[in-house]
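Structure first, sequence second, as always.
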């Protein structure tokens, strides 16, 4: 699943310096969730997540077959630890 999502979105989000690290489904509180995990060589701030999410949502809307039996799409970044001078 990761390879499929990566091939669809990585080229579109590369200007944000982020890429798909993982894509998988999970079951949480009875809902089937499609998770897309983003990563970068730098800390990913909320603005980048928001921008990447908009791009990814548009792409995933065009590929509904990937989300057929999915209740929710969740896009988030890997945790990088504490930012210096926060």
């Amino acid at each position: 699943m990761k390879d499929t999502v990566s091939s669809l979105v990585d080229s579109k989000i590369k200007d944000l310096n982020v890429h798909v690290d993982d894509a998988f489904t999970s079951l949480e509180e009875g809902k089937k969730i499609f998770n897309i995990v983003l990563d970068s060589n730098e800390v990913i701030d909320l603005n980048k997540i928001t921008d990447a999410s908009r791009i990814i949502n548009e792409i995933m809307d065009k590929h509904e077959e990937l989300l057929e039996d999915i209740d929710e799409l969740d896009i988030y970044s890997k945790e990088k630890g504490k930012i210096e001078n926060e």
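Margin note: The two ends are 35 Å apart (CA to CA).
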